Amino acid sequence: MAMMLILLGAPGVGKGTQAQKLMAHFGVPQISTGDILRAEVRRKTPLGQQALTYMNKGELVPDNVILDMVAQRLKASNAKNGVIFDGFPRTIAQAQGLDGILKQSGKKLDAVLSIEVPVQRIEERLSSRRSCATCGAVFNVLLNPDEIDNHECPKGQPLIVQREDDRPETIERRLKVYTEQTEPLKDYYRQTGLLKEVPGEGTVSEVFSRLLQAL
Ligand code: AMP
Q: In this structure, is residue 112 part of a structural domain?
């Protein structure tokens, strides 16, 4: 089914997890600008090296870099029936840039889903987030400690790490950047009638059902 969605929400509200489920449900790929950047960092490309200085400080990578990356990714053949944007757009300039890119290719957004979680819960969720550096699986040490112990990595030897930017010093900065630069996107998309706000607390499947209902 064709589906062009944006997942909005502060860092750590579960956008990545829900994007995976939406991807399986609608059969369209996820475009996570954070994942693309982390892959560039791992491969030590010039783009990755440029991005890392912003990422480690919890700051946003410049809009033109992100928009080029997204425009490129949208040309892939598996993106022709739609995509799920996760962590993009993050600024009004990126949203306007995306409008331009979609217009040129005759595509349209179906909805913007904003996952809402109170700030004090977000800090808790980010500081307890861990991931497997080998396969990218994401865990929570508070909610599901067993999942980490029992992780059978499909790609080899499991390596459980904390994201550099999930450390307390950087979390605070990322939340501030979200409030100042990304949250205004809710008004931007409310005006176009595309915004749907969905409570993000509860289990993964509860939140997923709410997202489907909102659509
Ligand atoms: P995320 O995994 O979405 O939390 O992204 C991790 C980091 O990558 C962010 O803190 C930013 O430094 C950078 N980043 C990811 N997506 C974007 C974006 N759309 N615009 C600017 N910076 C981004």
A: yes
Q: What is the pTM of this model?
A: 0.90
Nearest to 10 by CA among 180, 190, 194, 183: 183
Assign residue 44 the CATH number of its domain: 3.40.50.300
Distance 120 CA to ligand 1 centre (A): 21
Q: Which of 55, 70, 122 to mutate to test the pocket of ligand 1 (most atoms within 8 A of CB)?
A: 55
Atom of ligand 1 nearest to the CA of 91: 20
- pLDDT tens sequence across 99-120: 999 999 889 999 999 999 988 8
Is the Cα dihedral 105, 7, 189, 193 positive or negative? positive
Distance CA(38)–CA(145), nearest Å, equals 25
